[in-house]
Amino acid sequence: MLFRSNARPGTVPREQMRETVEQFVRLSHVVKVSDEDLHYLYPGDDVDAVCTRWAKAGPHLVVLTRGAQGLVAYRPGRPTIEVPGRRVEVADTVGAGDTVTAALLVGLGEYNALGGGDSIAELDDDVDRKSTRLNSSHEWISRMPSSACKKKK
């Protein structure tokens, strides 16, 4: 199961939203969250610490999106994988999170990492080699939002 956090200030009290999000995190295999969501849900907390804690709570993979700074993938007991962002002309960010989530699922599917069990947890984690499965998936993901955020002329 993939959970994509989408914190909307003003819809429910922050504490209630945080509790609900944490319940979904514990139940999920994959979590996608933005740094903006984490800043809202955990004001003053370090987003790296939150993602590390979440990765230990149940998911095999937590993907943090950081806008222009790219992505970070957290896996329990394994090194993080950081993928820098790509410079794009941003016209509108609506749908960027959905695009990243879709690209993440497609990328994991290409490596037969969907379908439950430990398939995601068993992906290669040799972060020094560009050809590792997880790293390659995340590099591919980092390219996807550029098309969603570029206005057609």
Q: Please state the overall shape, judged from the principal axes of the Cα atoms.
A: globular
Average pLDDT confidence is: 79
The total count of strands amounts to 5
Could you tell me the strand content as a percent range?
15-25%
Helix-residue proportion: 40-55%
Order of helices and strands: EHEHHEEEHH
Structural class: alpha/beta
Q: Largest sheet, order of strands side by side?
A: 1-2-3-4-5
Number of helices: 5
Tell me what the structure shows.
The chain has 153 residues and is of the alpha/beta class. A five-stranded mixed beta sheet has the order 1-2-3-4-5. The protein has helices at residues 14-27, 35-41, 47-56, 96-110, 133-148, and strands spanning 2-4, 30-34, 61-65, 71-75, 78-83.
What is the topological layout?
Blueprint: E1 2-4, H1 14-27, E2 30-34, H2 35-41, H3 47-56, E3 61-65, E4 71-75, E5 78-83, H4 96-110, H5 133-148
Parallel strand pairs: 1-2, 2-3
Antiparallel strand pairs: 3-4, 4-5
Helix pairs in contact: 4-5
What distinguishing features does this structure have?
alpha/beta, 41% helix, 153 residues, 5-stranded mixed β-sheet, 5 helices, globular, 5 strands, disordered C terminus
Summarize the structure.
The protein is an alpha/beta fold and 153 residues long. The chain has helices at 14-27, 35-41, 47-56, 96-110, 133-148; strands spanning 2-4, 30-34, 61-65, 71-75, 78-83.
